[in-house]
Amino acid sequence: MANYTVADIQALRERTGAGMLDVKKALDEAEGDLDKAVDILRVKGLKGVTKREGRSASEGLVAASIQDVDGGQVGTLIELNSETDFVAKNDKFVALADQVLATVVASGADSAEAALATDVDGKTLQEVIDAEAGILGEKIVLRRVARIAAPAVTEYLHRTNKDLPAQVGVLVGSDAKAGEVARDIAMHIAAYSPSYLVREEVPEDVVANERRVAEETAKAEGKPEQALPKIVEGRLNGFFKENTLVDQAFAKDPKTTVGKVIENSGGEVQAFARFRVGA
Fold first, then answer.
1. Residue 72: what are its φ and ψ, rounded to 5°?
2. Quick one: signal sequence residues (predicted)?
3. Could you give the C-alpha distances from 101 to 98, 123, 145, 255, in angstroms and in order?
4. In the chain, which residues fall in CATH 3.30.479.20?
5. Tens digit of each residue's pLDDT, the chain (279 residues)
6. 6-47 in CATH: which number?
7. CATH number at 59-199+245-276
8. What are the φ/ψ torsions at residue 237 (nearest 5 degrees)?
9. 3-class secondary structure for the chain?
10. Which residues contact 172 (CB under 8 A, 6 or more apart)?
11. How far, rounded to the nearest angstrom, does the alpha carbon of residue 244 sit from its chain's CA centroid?
């Protein structure tokens, strides 16, 4: 006869997020001891980590936090991935994301690698994530971390599906004056996905490749030789307008650019970060 009740089963499911069958087996093995059953679920889950390594984790959420520091603010943005959107909206997964974000913030880590090595009560953050992955039964990955320090940091989190956590996250670092338009700029970044802040940030090899492609395309189109330099520069300029933030047409007023919006604020945008889950 089972030495646990339906209430015990429900309590263990709420505590771990594990499936009904797994919970019953754990309670049987633990002879009704809830704490032991939790440990059993964790151990069994950890044994499955290796099996899950090759699986894809392209769902999940983004989360952000901003702290006041001397001289300004520091913003932290993370992307935590799961295999399915079912787990992405699970309360246990969301709670894990909150714990991961808090750990990253406290450590000051600016990369996933550094964050995963952070100590959490005698374990690494990677071990904490693996333990929760074992209970949830899916591969869980801290994919990316961004950290921005500036006089003012603004965040914007966007839900692409009302039933899921935020899927797109943006941080914008600016001075106080540009901070007045920073949220609009963050929303623009979420929608238009610029790769660079200004043209000077685009790596030389990327510019060289774009110039080469533009020239080869123009030649293939039969453009006259003497017109090639102007055509190439025009197409390169188009690349900048599409990929650099300050050159993009502003989402709220396409007749102007983001650069002009910043300029009119009298301030300066210093950096930004944008994560979209799985992208």
1. 155, -135
2. none
3. 5, 16, 9, 38
4. 59-199+245-276
5. 467 888 888 777 766 666 667 778 888 888 888 888 877 776 665 444 444 455 556 899 999 999 999 989 999 999 999 988 888 999 999 999 999 999 999 999 999 999 999 999 999 999 999 888 888 888 899 999 999 999 999 999 999 999 999 999 999 999 999 999 999 999 999 999 999 999 999 999 999 999 998 898 888 888 889 999 899 999 999 999 999 999 999 999 999 999 999 999 999 999 999 999 988
6. 1.10.8.10
7. 3.30.479.20
8. -65, -35
9. CCCCCHHHHHHHHHHHCCCHHHHHHHHHHCCCCHHHHHHHHHHHHHHCHHHHCCCCCCEEEEEEEEEEECCEEEEEEEEEEECCHHHHCCHHHHHHHHHHHHHHHHHCCCCHHHHHCCEECCEEHHHHHHHHHHHHCCCCEEEEEEEEEECEEEEEEECCCCCCCCCEEEEEEECCCHHHCHHHHHHHHHHHCCCECCHHHCCHHHHHHHHHHHHHHHHHCCCCHHHHHHHHHHHHHHHHHHHEHHHCEECCEEEEEHHHHHHHHCCCEEEEEEEECCC
10. 148, 153, 154, 155, 156, 182, 185, 186, 189, 269, 271, 272
11. 20
CATH class, range 203-243 = mainly alpha
* Dist. CA 162–CA 96, nearest whole Å: 20
The Cα–Cα gap between 175 and 180 comes to 9
Residues spanned by CATH 1.10.286 within the chain? 203-243
What single-letter amino acid sits at 151? P
